[in-house]
Structure formats: C-alpha cells, structure tokens
Design a protein that fits this description.
Length: 221
C-alpha cells in the first residue's frame, strides 16, 4: 500500500483529501506545516508527497527539496493562477502540480501514474517460501496460491511496508476500521492476525514472520 505524506494548511482540504485517499487504498500521513513535514521525512518512509506551496510555518519548496534529496516524487498543490510557483516547483524537481480546486479522481490518477514511474519493474517480494506480488495482489506459499481476504491483504501490506518496525494494535485497528467501515474491536484484530499467521507461517503456533511484542504490538522482521 503506497504511503503518502500530505502537507496542506487548509484543515478542510486536509481532512477530506486524507479520507478520500484512504478510500483509494493509500496510506496517508497528514500535517499542516513545513517543520512537521521535514521531521517526518527524517523518521518515516514515504512513497510520494503531496505538498501545498503555502504552509503555516513557511512554504512547500523546502519540503520539496528535502524530498528530492531522498529520491521521492512530489506533487505540488497550487492556488489557482499561481503559475510562477508551479514553474518554480517543477524547476526544483517536482514531478507534477495540480491547481486547487481540483477533482480528486484526477489527482489520484496523477498519483498512480507517478508511482508507476518510480516503481521497480516488478514488485515481487520473496520471504522464505512466500512469494508476494504486490502489483498483481497475489500470494504463493511454495507453489501453492494462497487466498487472502481484503482485510488480511491490508494487514500483510502494512507489515511488509513497515518491516522491522513495531506496529501498535491501535495503528493496525485504524487500518482495519478504514477498510471495513464497521465497528472493529481488539478481539477482531486478534482473529485476523491469527488467520494471517495460519496462512503464512509454517508453524502458526510458533510464528517467525509476524512476531508479537507483548503489550506493544507486532513486528515483521
């Protein structure tokens, strides 16, 4: 699941766009300021940045510069008629810009086009006898196809995109809630982790892939 850092100083746009992107199967982290964005870039991994030029504590150009130094794609969100800022952003290496107000579907189309350009030719992950094709959305254990529900696939992508990092139960619950749209409790997460282990692990009773950090959450090394 692509992880997008959204930097926007308009609270309404921030909230609505973040929700829309989640419904389009993007993981999003949203902030309104330059300093918060740069701090997150140092701590987390992202696949693409959506950057408003006018921010609460500066502008988006410095964020763009920091992102390009890491080789990350950037789309600028610009005010209507602000052609000069858009050109400056492109000169700095931004990959695209879109003028507000914009159609969400058009923005998502541009995001996906850029992510395809940056993606490896074939995103296949091999872990032991597991073969995960993120592009095709398929999983094989040995030579046997494994069927995952939408929620199980979402959890697997969360673990794969955060390998080596602790994922708290609260964060995982937010992801399940987002896709299920129904009330999800702590027991539900336990059930889905158990089901996922049964499909992935050689010995689900003694898991080696999805490890429990007691009282904290889970981690995939």
């Amino acid at each position: 699941m692509p992880h997008i850092l959204l930097i926007e100083n308009d609270p309404a746009i921030l909230q609505n766009l973040q929700e829309y992107l989640r419904l389009q199967d993007f993981q999003t982290t949203a902030v309104s300021g330059q300093r918060d964005a740069q701090r997150l870039l140092e701590k987390q991994t992202f696949d693409l940045l959506l950057v408003d030029i006018a921010l609460d504590d500066g502008d988006g150009f410095s964020v763009c510069k920091a992102a390009k130094e890491k080789g990350l794609p950037v789309i600028f969100l610009t005010a209507s008629g602000d052609e000069g800022s858009a050109v400056r952003g492109l000169d700095m290496g931004a990959d695209d810009y879109i003028t507000k107000p914009f159609r969400p579907r058009e923005l998502v189309s541009r995001i996906r086009n850029i992510l395809r350009r940056y993606a490896p030719e074939h995103a296949v992950i091999q872990i032991g006898d597991l073969r995960i094709d993120a592009d095709k959305g398929t999983l094989e254990k040995g030579d046997v196809p494994v069927s995952l529900s939408a929620l199980e696939w979402r959890l697997l992508m969360m673990f794969l995109n955060n390998r080596g990092k602790l994922l708290t139960r609260d964060r995982l619950l937010e992801e399940i809630w987002d896709i299920a749209g129904d009330f999800v409790n702590d027991n539900t997460l336990t059930v889905y982790i158990k089901r996922l282990r049964e499909k992935l692990e050689t010995d689900p009773q003694h898991p080696t892939l999805i490890q429990t950090q007691r009282g904290r959450g889970y981690r995939m090394d």
